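Subject: for your reference before the review

Hello V.,

The reviewers asked for a structural picture of the protein, and I figured it would be easier to keep everything in one thread rather than splitting it across files. Below is the amino acid sequence we used in the manuscript, unchanged from the supplementary table.
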Amino acid sequence: MTRFACGQGGKHGEGGSRSLILVLLPALSALSAIPAFAQAPTTPPAVAAPAGLKLPPIQQAKLPNGLSIRLVEMHEVPLVQATLRVKGGGRLDTGRPGLASFTANLLDEGAGSRDAFGIAEQAAFLGADISTGADWDYLLVNLNTPKRTLGDALDLMADIALRPTFKSADVARERDLRLAQIIQQRDQPGGMAALAFGAIVFPSGHPYHWPLGGDSSAVGRFDSVTVRGFYNRIFRPDQAELVITGDITMAEARAEVSRRFGRWIQNRMAVARPPVPPPVPRPARRTVYLVDKPGAAQSVIMIGSPGVTRTNPDYPAIEVMNTILGGSFSSRLNQNLRETKGYTYGAGSGFTYRPVPGPFVARAAVRTDVTDSSLVEFFKELNAIRDSAVSQVELERARNYIVFGLPGDFETTGQMASQIAELLTFGLPPTYFDTYVGQVGRVSVADVQRVARKYFDPARVDVVVVGDVEKIRPGIEALGLGPVTVRDLEGGEVGN
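And here is what came back from the structure prediction:
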């Protein structure tokens, strides 16, 4: 009910409210005498056909030392984004989990003549944002800067990429910080579920068996010699590419980059490239793995199996199917578990695309007392999208969700750079996005059911549940989903 007030509390405010209500009562009575008319049902406007997505061309160049440049001009605002990508992410950790991301994080802790504070101070003075990191396949240095300070910002970027100091004190500080983060992750149900899921779905020796951030055993042995040795093996111009977007031409970019990176010499050390692991098969049967978190108010559920490659020709149909299943707020999983049942704040699903395929995962954090009921609803939806055709309304909504959202992924220089990087990572043609909208628009009801049946099987998945085992185990066992076993965060069996 709306409250009317004419003062700030006290008897004056209350009296003002009563007076105003008394004045309004006759008018409200008069309105109530007006006959009510049936309101015609409203029809939402028809959605126009999506326009084709036409992106500016991706220009290419290469320096004599092997460094590749990919550039897209965007002259709307005077900003430039530059992302240096060096092949050699977490897949090259080779028995030392976390080394790639640890090395990448140290690049901006000291470089050239500056320490971490000096780097941050210089970036702020230039109005630039600079960061470092790693994913499973690349070490990254990202720069976003105004056009007017581009030269000085590239000087700073070159120091970080080519002249990191890796001082022992910096390594020790970052090592202690990483170890604290690992401990923290192992105490949070979501982090625990991610650790256990990777260890269970992917066998020992597979790069995804261990987390990208590593484990305490490996990280505890990192020192400046280890980090510098990894850096020297990985950072080579012939293994690097610089993705540049923004208010700059190729001629300008080549001149600026050559000045800073043209003398980047090829080291003579051979890059150890581990063999690509063979595809991981789906589990032979559905198994439930419980990870104990005594006293947990929620259970984190992750249901999945090894996924598919990004270059799969069914990719558009897979994305439409998953949008319906769990890839948007209006998806079946979220509408069921959140909106209808009220078990969770959010439920969803998705395929993780990497050069070495990541997993398919359906997940949610649910109340402890509805853990078993949530699993029933998960498998209800996972089976339904395979067993029955989706409606035409769902199909249209999912296709529109993808195609109308796509232009928003290319608005900023950073977003454009990210999309170019995706093409480079998966070896997709520069014109890929020019035809993607049409591919999504041709996905049919039959395609959705076909890819659902082909790319995941609810009877052959790993079910990882982190929660209070004493409270959730009886209800889960009663469901008869499959064998139920208790595991630790490394996937090892715990006495049942």
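For the response letter, the relevant points are probably these. Residues 43 and 189 are 45 Å apart (CA to CA). The chain is about 40% helix and 15% strand.

Happy to draft the paragraph if you're swamped.

O.
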